[in-house]
């Protein structure tokens, strides 16, 4: 079955490259495989602190008591995931996909969240002091809720959390 999937994927990539050109993002996306994937996994009591996990995939995951403190998570995908008691303190998540994620009791203090897509995500009891949300894409209701607790300055970028969220 895996062999058939691989053949179908290569065939689709060839078809797209002939029609669109090999350098076209759609042709490249079909051939893209993440270096590290935990997609659809349930992760409990895992320690990823300080690790280099750039471009890893955690899509569709359930994460409970997972530590990503000071991790390099640039370009990662956490789409459609559920997080409870997770720490991203001091982590770099710039250019990541965190859309449709439920954050409950999540520590985002001092995290770099620049250019992150958070659309349709839910934030409950999150800590965001010192987090930098510059150029992140959030729903208006999310911004209003986060502005209620926004404070501090990111120690890496020097940007105030309230300024990065455009709080009034």
Explain the layout of strands and helices.
Blueprint: H1 2-20, H2 25-31, E1 42-44, E2 62-64, E3 82-84, E4 102-104, E5 122-124, H3 140-147, H4 161-164
Helix pairs in contact: 1-2
What does this structure look like?
- There is one protein chain.
- The chain has 168 residues and is α/β, with parallel strands linked by helices.
- Helix content is 23%, strand content 9%.
- The protein has 4 helices and 5 strands; from the N terminus they run H-H-E-E-E-E-E-H-H.
- The protein has helices spanning 2-20, 25-31, 140-147, 161-164; strands at 42-44, 62-64, 82-84, 102-104, 122-124.
- The protein has a 5-stranded parallel β-sheet.
- Helix 1 packs antiparallel against helix 2 (25-31).
- It is globular, with a radius of gyration of 18 Å.
- InterPro entries: 5peptide_repeat, At2g44920-like.
- Pfam families: Pentapeptide (PF00805).
- This is Pentapeptide repeat-containing protein.
């Amino acid at each position: 079955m895996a062999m058939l999937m691989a053949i179908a994927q290569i065939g689709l990539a060839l078809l797209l490259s002939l029609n669109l050109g090999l350098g076209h993002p759609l042709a490249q996306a079909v051939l893209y495989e993440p270096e590290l994937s935990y997609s659809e996994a349930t992760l409990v009591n895992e320690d990823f602190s300080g690790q280099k996990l750039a471009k890893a995939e955690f899509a569709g995951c359930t994460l409970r008591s997972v530590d990503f403190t000071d991790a390099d998570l640039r370009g990662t995908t956490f789409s459609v995931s559920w997080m409870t008691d997770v720490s991203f303190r001091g982590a770099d998540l710039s250019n990541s996909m965190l859309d449709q994620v439920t954050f409950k009791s999540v520590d985002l203090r001092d995290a770099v969240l620049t250019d992150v897509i958070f659309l349709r995500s839910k934030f409950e009891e999150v800590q965001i002091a010192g987090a930098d949300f510059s150029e992140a894409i959030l729903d208006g209701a999310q911004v209003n809720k986060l502005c209620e607790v926004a404070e501090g300055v990111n120690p890496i970028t020097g940007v105030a959390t309230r300024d990065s969220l455009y709080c009034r």
